[in-house]
């Protein structure tokens, strides 16, 4: 059970309805998932969060499928089951194949393993790596 | 200071040197990052971790830059500065531009925000989303 209640389209204020309409139009779907219906209890957060997602996840220098995979990676690491599934669904809609899903899971596992090793051994950052990350040749 | 010490190439046993050689050859570099030098204190883990990394991060169906950005995303979410920096460097080496990195960081930020909102509100998973996530590429 979520905290509070879902705001269904029929019961929503015009402000919330406008966001729901934009979500359905942008995503090409005819329904609103529970995340938005729960957030809609706080219309300002609903609107702000949707505007952020719409801007951040739109095509840019990275293709939309790569963005969804990054989203899934963060959600797995944070242990957010809802978010993993909602963004896997998004990734599927954007072309994620079973083979890509398997590779994505392997990279997430690999990163978690080496993250833990670095934390355990308390490895200090090489200056050379820091410069390379900054873009130095 | 890391726990223990770094194993430099000159002081390494044959098993560790073979891994170092493979890392440098695979990555086309002439130096070894401290991560490998520190875990080389445990040669079996060094070898296993490198073999895993080589297989997982090697060519496949996901583009190599995208894989590095996924690695960065996990590392940031886990708060591992060494790892996010190391894999940002690798992403750049594989062709990530500043614009691509900026977009990846924006996705990581919004994901963290919505993860927290879902956790806070305790939103339950829609059956419809679960089915869509399971859907095979064929279906």
Distance between the termini of chain B: 52 Å
Structural class of chain B: mainly alpha
CA-to-CA gap between the ends of chain A? 52 Å
User: How many helix segments of chain B?
Assistant: 7
Rg calc of chain A: 19 Å
CATH topology of the largest domain in chain B: AhpD-like
Q: Helices and strands of chain B, in N-to-C order? A: HHHHHHH
Would you identify the regions of chain A where 5 or more consecutive residues have pLDDT less than 50? none
Q: Please outline the major beta sheet of chain A.
A: none
| CATH class category label of the largest domain in chain B | Mainly Alpha
Q: CATH topology of the domain at 1-58 in chain A, anyone?
A: AhpD-like
Radius of gyration of chain B: 19 Å
Helices of chain A, by number, come to: 7
CATH architecture of the domain at 1-58 in chain A: Up-down Bundle
> What kind of assembly state do the chains in view correspond to?
heterodimer
* DSSP E strands of chain B, number: 0
The chain pair with the largest interface is: A-B, 76 and 78 residues
Order of helices and strands of chain A: HHHHHHH
Largest sheet of chain B at a glance? none
The portion of residues assigned to helices of chain B is 55-70%
